[in-house]
């Protein structure tokens, strides 16, 4: 342990106050150290408007004043930081900061930089050592190689989104065990094996940062440096990520810099003033979520959030961050009526401070971690979300420009249009054919992830299975067709847990998934279909290598509304990679359906969603179709195929 008076240097304070400190978690909070040979902890907290600050803990009986902190001066003014040394305070001990404000307000606060916390509803922070012996060097080396020369977005990417508390729970046994959470370590081998079987390249974890209310699914964060202790220790989460990496599965973490809860022990009204949040209610409170909004114009807040993002990438080896609520950050009038918001200094509705923060965040991560992905959950038409910011180094094929600098953005439009279309009785689909083709108008404006996320299966929206039209057989066929379209269109893929089971119930965060569905052949068929779609994605470059090149996708016939059929080509790096995809959105089989193709000869049927093994009717083309030198649909050759009911077919030249 270092023998020192303070971990903070004058440079640290300067960078913090300038909004450019990127490793603030190494300086603020509680860190084991020695002073004159006496072991303990060096502690520091930002509370510029406090009159007095103490560290309270088991060791001092939680009595304020016993371990009082002192204000840290900086050049000719106060730094706003209180610091001190607490003898004997050691790994595993609980603590809080007792803050007395200049207005007389007194409060006990959890450490904003704590690495570990008590299990909610308990609220104390815990002194914690983050040492861990990682075993994922081979994965990190491969990741770095893929990230070179813009290669990240030219890789196959299919993401399995899951909530750790409700993916799988303890199956039974003693009453004390039945239905309890599995720990990070218990989940690790099960999740890794399941992902290998399904074939997803990445998992995305709903926020694992500490949150007081389990029902928020992690989106109301109080511990921006502490994984939730509901499932174990920080090292247990490291073990989970390490295990997935050793099985060649990437890990994306949800990151929530958009808002935070108003729980008294958290960031809100931290030192008796609106420190992390805006003081103006019209800027500082989210009316829809009843949570507090960060003040991105405050330099120290930017240092806090930048350090948090980089901490999860470096300390926990995360392979990317999915940034939640970007739309709510970008607009001052988000979810507000006229008169409930304040225009920016230019008279507009854009949150200029948030835009600056997001550009800075993505620029810093591009520089320090060029082999990770930054993904925006952004639901508006804000321009150039996945374009590089002017003057910054290019990364992952991102375009130079005045963009926000993300690598990928969720395609909410595709999700809404497609789910609405598939909820229609097929007899009416011919009148809504544009819902399937409208995406072509904007598909290459951004780098998109086609997402079917947790948001689509909660709050009385029902399951994906339940959204499909028709009887049970047709629902399953429509669901397979939905996944086929998702995997066939340009863009990366994301599916929330349970979708692979054909989950009938809406997602319930208080219960495990209905794993018994895998014992039913008709639902096992949906699982197999996703396994085979992922396998096809991994082995066919046409489905990923040119996702964001406009010539990587070619319509054959986008306008066959009368038959509710779509046909198109996906092109890879070479002519031999080309795939033909045809989707029949009605339960009516189509015989001798003619399509243009770039080459004559045999075209193998790679996948058929109507195959009996997937729960279909077993119709198809006996494995292949013959293309003749007969030009059609701007192609030099053509073939005729049998289209089964509610089916997707993938062909490749033999």
If you had to describe this structure to a student in words, what would you say it looks like?
By secondary structure, this protein is an alpha/beta fold. Among the domains are: about 10-125, Immunoglobulin-like (Sandwich); about 155-380 and about 400-410, TIM Barrel, CATH 3.20.20.80; about 550-654, Golgi alpha-mannosidase II (Immunoglobulin-like, Sandwich), CATH 2.60.40. The protein is built from 15 helices and 31 strands. The strands form seven sheets. Strands 10-11-14-17-18-21-22-23 form an eight-stranded parallel beta barrel. Strand 15 (about 285) and strand 16 form a beta hairpin. Helix 1 (about 10-20) crosses helix 7, helix 7 packs parallel to helix 9 (about 350-370) and helix 14 packs parallel to helix 15 (about 520-540).
| The CATH top-level class label of the domain at 156-378 and 398-408 | Alpha Beta
Q: Order of strands in the sheet with the most strands?
A: 10-11-14-17-18-21-22-23
Q: What is the approximate shape?
A: elongated
Rg of Cα set? 27 Å
User: Could you state the CATH homologous superfamily of the domain at 156-378 and 398-408?
Assistant: Glycosidases
What gap, in angstroms, lies between the N and C termini? 65 Å
Strand content: 15-25%
Report the biggest beta sheet as strand number plus sense, adding barrel if it closes.
Answer: 8 strands, parallel, barrel
Category by helix and strand content: alpha/beta
Question: Helical region count?
Answer: 15
Q: Please estimate the helix content.
A: 10-25%
């Amino acid at each position: 342990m270092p023998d020192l008076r303070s971990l903070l240097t004058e440079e640290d304070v300067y960078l913090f106050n300038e909004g450019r400190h990127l490793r603030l978690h190494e300086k603020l909070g509680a860190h084991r150290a020695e002073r004159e040979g006496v072991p303990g902890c060096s502690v520091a907290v930002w509370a510029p408007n406090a009159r007095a600050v103490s560290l309270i803990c088991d060791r001092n009986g939680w009595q304020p004043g016993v371990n009082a902190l002192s204000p840290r001066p900086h050049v000719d003014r106060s730094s706003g930081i209180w610091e001190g040394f607490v003898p004997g305070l050691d790994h595993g001990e609980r603590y809080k900061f007792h803050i007395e404000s200049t207005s007389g307000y007194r409060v006990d606060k959890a450490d904003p930089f704590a690495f570990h916390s008590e299990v909610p509803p308990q609220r104390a922070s815990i002194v914690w050592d983050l040492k861990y012996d990682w075993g994922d060097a081979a994965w990190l080396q491969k990741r770095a190689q893929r990230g070179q020369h813009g290669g990240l977005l030219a890789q196959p990417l299919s993401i399995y989104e899951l909530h750790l508390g409700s993916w799988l729970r303890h199956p039974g046994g003693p009453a004390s065990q039945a239905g309890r959470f599995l720990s990070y370590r218990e989940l690790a081998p099960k999740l890794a094996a399941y992902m290998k079987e399904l074939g997803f390249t990445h998992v995305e974890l709903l926020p694992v940062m500490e949150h007081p209310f389990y029902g928020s699914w992690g989106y109301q964060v109080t511990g921006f440096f502490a994984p939730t202790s509901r499932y174990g220790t920080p090292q247990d989460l490291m073990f989970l990520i390490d295990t997935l990496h050793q099985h060649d599965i990437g890990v994306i973490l949800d990151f929530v810099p958009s808002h935070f809860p108003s729980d008294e022990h958290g960031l809100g009204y931290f030192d008796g003033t609106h420190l992390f949040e805006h003081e103006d209610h019209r800027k500082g409170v989210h009316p829809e979520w009843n949570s507090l909004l960060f003040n991105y114009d405050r330099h120290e807040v930017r240092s806090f959030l930048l350090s948090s993002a980089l901490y999860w990438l470096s300390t926990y080896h995360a392979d990317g961050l999915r940034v939640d609520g970007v739309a709510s950050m970008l607009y001052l009038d988000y979810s507000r009526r006229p008169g409930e918001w304040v225009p920016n200094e230019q008279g507009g509705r854009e949150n200029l401070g948030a835009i600056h923060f997001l550009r800075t965040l993505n620029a810093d991560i591009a520089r320090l971690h060029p082999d990770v992905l930054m993904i925006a959950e952004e639901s508006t038409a804000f321009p150039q979300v996945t374009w590089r910011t002017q003057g910054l180094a290019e990364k992952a094929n991102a375009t130079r420009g005045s963009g926000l600098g993300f690598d990928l953005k969720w395609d909410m439009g595709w999700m809404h249009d497609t789910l609405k279309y598939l909820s229609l009785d097929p007899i009416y689909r011919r009148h809504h054919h544009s819902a399937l083709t409208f995406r072509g108008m904007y598909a290459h404006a951004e780098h998109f992830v086609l997402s079917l996320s947790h948001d689509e299966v909660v709050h009385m929206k029902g399951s994906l299975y339940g959204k499909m039209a028709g009887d049970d057989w047709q629902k399953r066929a429509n669901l397979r067709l939905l996944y086929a379209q998702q995997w066939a269109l340009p863009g990366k893929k994301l599916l929330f847990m349970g979708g692979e089971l054909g989950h009938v119930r809406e997602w319930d965060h208080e219960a495990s998934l209905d794993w018994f569905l895998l014992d039913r052949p008709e639902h096992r068929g949906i699982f197999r279909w996703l396994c085979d779609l992922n396998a096809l994605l991994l082995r066919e470059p046409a489905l990923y290598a040119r996702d964001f090149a406009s010539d990587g996708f070619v319509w054959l016939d986008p306008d066959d509304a009368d038959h509710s059929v779509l046909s198109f080509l996906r092109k890879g790096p070479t002519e031999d990679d080309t795939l033909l995809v045809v989707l029949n959105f009605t339960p009516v089989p189509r015989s001798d359906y003619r399509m243009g193709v770039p080459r004559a000869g045999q075209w193998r049927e790679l996948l058929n969603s109507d195959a009996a093994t997937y729960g279909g009717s077993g119709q198809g083309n006996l494995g292949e179709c013959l293309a003749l030198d007969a030009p059609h649909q701007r192609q030099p050759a053509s073939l005729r195929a049998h289209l089964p009911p509610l089916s997707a077919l993938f062909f490749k030249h033999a």
